[in-house]
Fold these 2 entries.
Entry 1:
Amino acid sequence: MEKEVVISIKGMQTYEGTPPDIIELVTEGRLVRDGGGYTLSYQESELTGLEGTLTTIQVDREQVTLMRVGEFNSQLVFQEGRRHLSMYNTPYGAMTIGVNTRHLLADLNDQGGDIEVDYSVEVDHALAGRNIFRISVKEAEGGLGSLKQ
């Protein structure tokens, strides 16, 4: 199963001593059922500062993996109650970041669904901030609908 979807993303980043940075984005993307999970993908835009980057979110039972390929390459693994280390590559060099997932909800089906992740970020083992993102996925209306079964 593969279909065109509309993806609504609401994200909030909080760093100590600064007001929260909030971003809201609605974009077109693709939802694919693969095995027991789902893969969601979309192109980043100028609004996110990641224009030209493909973001892919893999949802498997108790784990969500966010991958970005483009000028900024990264892979973040979210698993509730677990800490994962990842490399974050930027044009200015690579750094190690830790992701500690406080809360994870991933409820996707063939019609869409919701993903919610609340996590803290460490850069070189120092707490850098807290992030929360909520993603809502809905079938694109009047689009191609189901592309493949």
Entry 2:
Amino acid sequence: MAKMGIDYSVVGKRIKERREALELTQRELADLIGVSPSFIGHLERAEKIPSVETLAKLCAAADMSMDYLLFGTIHACDREKCELFRDLQKLMAAYSSRA
């Protein structure tokens, strides 16, 4: 079995790509997960390695799975869950705006 290592330069690129796709600044993402904007920059440039707790907060804030962030893998069930979750959020927002 091949050993799966984490390439933090690729992880940093994924963080930056997702942040930009969400149209967030480094400051906005940092505020969402409780770190400094400079720390986000360090992560994106692979100058620092985040803790598991920070990775979990980052994945939650950016709506991505940990396995995608670390290894680039996307499972069909993950995509289905994310789409269903987004649909549910839209329905809840529409319902609450009518109340």
